[in-house]
């Protein structure tokens, strides 16, 4: 296997909140990085950054391996960085806009019910389809098309079920973890970050920024007052990590020989 191929990585969902940071850190680690997504374009928020032009941005439908499967032979590492907090995707456009308490409460209510805007484009995106089924489809396509080892498969899971988020969010992630871990042809690396923030975010303060600052303040207050001495509090108040910490941990694991298994939040925090 040529060294250039060994240092190649495919990031599915590479234009997402975490995905684009994985692409950035991949370029920084001298990987040949390809992002696969429905639009095949980088997010507008980072379009001006120099690393963006070094990423190969491609269109793909993760549910249809014919749109990308034959290209997977060029990669020894694949990342599944696709997920959703609510099955109604209206929250994604809302969380990255300016803070407005009345509108935010209404949008949060709408996130629990109503139609999914993606269904109009022929998609039926649910926790099960996006967080489990798509991950398994991608894994099978990787096994089928990449005939050489190592086949590193990174799945972005989660530490815990976030408050107010339906329980099926974490259930489907754990089901995906199990199915992927049963595929012996893969070196499956399961990342379990907690709440994430982008420490290099540019522009106006968004609702995501405000929420993450509040969470980080709460974690800091807990650490200063009671530390880690009370177990059930540690389970409730979980560390907040940056997307850069998560991405750095991924590439650290990829550089370890035959790395596989669950990477817990406590390990991610150290990077």
From TrEMBL:
Residue intervals of the Thioester reductase (TE) domain:
147-224
Task: Give GO cellular component annotations, separated by semicolons.
Answer: mitochondrion
Under InterPro entries, the record lists: ComplexI_NDUFA9_subunit, FAR_NAD-bd, NAD(P)-bd_dom_sf
Record-level Gene Ontology MF annotations: protein-containing complex binding
Regions crossing the membrane = none
Top-level taxon in the UniProt lineage = Eukaryota
Instruction: Please state what the protein is called.
Output: Thioester reductase (TE) domain-containing protein
User: Which organism is this entry from?
Assistant: Candida verbasci
